[in-house]
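yo

u said u wanted the structure for the complex thing, so here. seqs first:
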Amino acid sequence: MSDVSIRTRINGEEWTGAVEPRLLLSDFLRGNLGLTGTHVGCEHGVCGACTVRFDGDPVRACLMFAVQIDGHEIETVEGLSPAAGTDLRIADLHPIQRAFHETHGLQCGFCTPGILMTVASFLERNPKPSDREIREAISGHLCRCTGYHNIVAAVARAAELLTEVEA
Amino acid sequence: MSDRRRWIGERVPRIEDARLLTGRAPFVDDWEPPGTLHVAFVRSNLPHAKILDIDTAAAAAHPGVAAIYTAEDLGALCCPGPVLVPPPPIEGAIFHARTPLPLAREIVRHQGEPLAMIVADSRYIAEDAAALVSVDLDALDAVVDLSTALNEGAPLVHSDLGSNLAAHVRQTKGDYEAAKSAADRVVARRFRYDRGVAAAIENRGVLAEWDARADRLRVWDTTQAPIPIRAAIASTLGLSEAQVRVIAPFIGGGFGPKVMFYAEEILIPWVAMQLGRPVKWIEDRYENFFATTQEREQLHESELALTEDGRILGVRDHFLHDSGAYDPYGLTVPINSQCTLLGPYRIPNYESEFRVVFTNKPMVTPVRGAGRQHGVFVMERLLDIAAKELGLDRLDIRAKNLLDPDEFPHNHEIIYQDSAPLTYDSGNYAPALAEAARLIGYHDFENERRAAAADGKRIGLGIVNYVEGTGIGPYEGARITVEPSGKVRAATGVGTQGQGHFTAFAQVVAEAVGVNPADVRIVTGDTSEFHWGTGTFASRGAVVAGNAFGAAAQAVREKILAHASEALEVSEEDLELVDGTARVRGAPDVSIALGELARRANPLRGAVKPGTEPGLEATSYFGPERGTTANGVHALIVAVDPETAMVDILRYVVVHDCGTVINPMIVEGQIHGGVALGIGNAFYEELTFDEFGGTTNASFMDYLLPTATDVPAIETAHMVTPSPLNPMGTKGVGEAGAIPVAAAFVQAVEDALREVAPTLELVDIPLSPGRLFEALQDAGEEA
Ligand code: FES
Ligand code: FES
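structre next:
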């Protein structure tokens, strides 16, 4: 099958080009665009590692084709804190990223980018979540390292930091 | 030493986080040199079969396919892999080594064994071509059931052996028979532990690039042990070790299976050399259920002999251990089970015998816990049952048998996995048990139970002990260099899979040389940076590599002091190392920066004193004489619905003692993760097989990992009994969280159901809701 042209915005930047119709969104982001912060852990929609934001909502990039983002906007972990330059400083990161750092919300970090994207959307909708709501919000993500304990703490802390930013 | 700002013991946030949180930390699959070819494997659908024919013609003709290989095409490469861990020298032990070929020839012995390797322009094309390979297999009867695998007439996994026995080991201490005849009570039961997978969220992967001009091979590999992998690649491919660089960059979780040496780790570099192109293989999740090693099927027949008042006189344990189709990892897992069973208890007589069995299932090698949880499960269950039969309190029966602090070092008179006698270095067990009982509210629990019952809820409590042999040898090393910038660079050979090594090791270095941990750049898992060492396994990183860093840091400190004393013309005793400078005590203005000292220690012209080494650098090694023994207690409260058999964990408490703690935040994280994995093993995760040996739940849809709603908040408390076996006093913790969960979990569930099903005895793990439901039915019928 011949390639299909698409036009999209990725992390705020316009992208136009042609892709193979069967190319997964996850492979497109990682392979074609070099946005390797989006990880792939299962390729069947369960682990959540590949989660990106599609017009602001979290989606599993391994369950979508690249052609489906034509006319839509995608945000990946690389777009979370564009201010962070080569000299990476925690202070320059997004409040959600800072919260994960403060609370030790990541270990191997493989599941983390996907979780950050889900949390970004979740906290927009629910800025003051309860512990139960946080657990439910991240229950679509598998993490084998942290036991979720510190991820829950990280999300609660992120909610605090985000409210401080707004205040 | 009063100048030292204490970094060891501080909750220093992790230095590696920024790169991981921004998606910049590179994992193996994030590398892709231009022109990379991609590999897909054709794997056997059948667990046991004769290979009649593999026809690759159609696949080879598919556009974009660069090469296809079957066993016949591998030449000398197609020989059995090495035995990675030779069995310890135990008198009378039998061990038959059988290791897999890189690609199967003539016979396949487990589902997923690789038959052909396809190399193509993209993974998509490689998989298209894989579908075009036609494989003709003649199914053979498979060995599936562990309990009957040694029976006369059972099908044979390795026909040349004449039986499915892979190993037989018997170890004894004292005289169990005599103890039994002196006992007031003997409790005998059978226990079963089923299979599961490690399920690191990152699958395995290898990328290899042959640089013909430099005559060098570069390999990126998701391994926990880059240095042994380099040695194996070099010797198999006929290269000098200096020509091979193995890089284990960021790894998305290890948990044991990534310490194995797999056929793909040879095949991918070999193909890269054959084709002169970079070649990459990334395992997919389905493959991971077959191609990556697993754990932990065992069947135990066990006995506990006691006095009327609950004193242990002896234990007998006979068990079968499922090795899967091959046994490249020797006896590590069953020996861990055998040795860990003794736990923190005084057990004067022990008779333990196991048989390792070949079956037509994927290979078994250590997965977090590595056989230790079986031992803990058996011992703790026996104590629970004995307490019930003797009418004793389950806390009392445990407390009564704990080793006292003055009984250390305690030699158990049997051989451990590191080939040394199993000897506990130090421990203070009674306070840990008491603390856990206090934190979980053991003594007030009957009130809590009544209050819950009034709400129509059935709650139960579980509390168990464990020990964990950690920090075994042989050795690790570290090199530390102060750079002219004043920053410190430090390297070790162990790989890292999320344990916070970049931070914990930096703390050790920072404390000795008087800098901030943020100014210490740790490099792990790159053989071009450090090429001595064995790897990250057996909860040994913080102990063995940690102490190597400690020794190297001390040596660098001495060099700094010597140079500074010369530069400032004061005696070394009058100097302190603070904030990246060496300065005079009481006269902080008289100082010199470490960077300046580094420059002076490496002059470009002039003369140096004969016999001195350039630079502020030191390399040290640490090899413990034997492993350290960490310990702890897990306690939990569950609510069980007897109608649906659903279990809800209400509270979870861990009291643990891993000696000196470098970074409590990281240690707690290790425990949280271990407990979650343990909860999965105890209740959700069971790899199931059909009667022909095929896996029936090889996906994350069907094989259930615990999620955030299944795992409770975990309360932790630290006790510190330093190890006398290393200067820092550390013990390992990497696996501790996972080890006792199943034992604690079933005790709590039984306790919750004690009125509904007083005869209920849970002896099988994992205890899925389905299994619990059936056990409840059975208990109901008996009653
Ligand atoms: S990789 Fe997409 S959900 Fe697992
Ligand atoms: S941090 Fe390793 S999988 Fe979540």
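The beta strands of chain A are 4-10, 13-19, 51-54, 57-60, 73-75. The first helix of chain A runs from residue 25 to 32.
cya
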